[in-house]
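Can't paste images in this forum, so I'm doing it all in text. The chain is below; anyone willing to post the predicted structure tokens underneath?
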Amino acid sequence: MDVFSRTFLPAAAEAGVAIPTVSRHMPVFRRCVEPDETTVLVGRCQRPEAPLSGEFMLVLTHRRLVVTQETRVLHRLRLHLNANLRHLSNVSWSPEVSRSTCEIAATAVDGVRERFRVRLTNPEAVWTMDARLRQVFHARHALAA
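Text version of the structure:
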């Protein structure tokens, strides 16, 4: 089993993502993420500006941010975002402990501002997500400086 699989499955379980959902999304993630990448974060999310656009699933590694979209009616999957972290700018996040959510925003290379609201299982998970985002993006910022 490669590094991605070994780290993706526990991260998905920690996020409370059901196995059938993981199975549907895994082929798309496999095409985007290298086998030697470590999964930092997995989460189901929505786009705040388009709440009826279906469910999204976000995967963050130390090198990539990949987001898939699943349509509401037919449950079809499509790749929404596949970005190397070097190509993202103005990355920000705002944890909301009272609502057990965290909103993540980043500007892609094409200038499009992407926003995702991740629903978490409990307030403690919000702080865990904040720490992991800080670890990935602050470490990347420190390396660039």
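The beta strands are 39-46, 55-61, 64-70, 77-84, 89-96, 101-107, 113-119. The chain is about 35% helix and 35% strand.
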